[in-house]
Write a structure and sequence with these properties.
The chain is an alpha+beta fold. The protein has one domain: Roll (HIV Type 1 Reverse Transcriptase, Chain A, domain 1), CATH 3.10.10.10. Helix content is 32%, strand content 17%. The strands form two sheets. The protein has a three-stranded antiparallel β-sheet, covered by helices on one side. A two-stranded antiparallel sheet has the order 2-3. Strand 4 and strand 5 form a beta hairpin. It holds the Pfam family RVT_1.
Amino acid sequence: MLRRPPYPASLGTRKEIEKYINELLDMDVSRKIGHNEIVEINTPVLITWHDVKSRLCGDFRALHNYTKADRYPIPRIPHALDKLAKAKYITKMDCMKGFHQNGVKPNSMKLLRIICHMGIYEYARMPFGIKNAPAHFQRMMDTIFQEEILEGWMV
């Protein structure tokens, strides 16, 4: 892993990053750390789609090179569409910032650090951009809704 400087960012992007960092701090998803700690840090990336919605995501590609893939099955779109076509009822539940519902082991927090113009932060909860986050989240949902899945629910 590397100790990288923050990516250059426009004033507008910096303001968006500030908004997301402050939100993460308010929700206890991350915490600011001192500059004197020896750290391996990643750089945050602001992902924007359809020029409407954005999300802060760490650039954890260097970490992914050392991460063993979690092969937990995630529902495939064709299978989901087939089940939806035959459904009698359809509803939606939004798990607000679902990945952030999962805690991070203390010894892993040092690997989940990001740097920006505001300083260095580490995640105490699962961030977006981690290789195994989708599999981990699906496993959590399957565990929580175990009985409902047996009844035929799709999670």
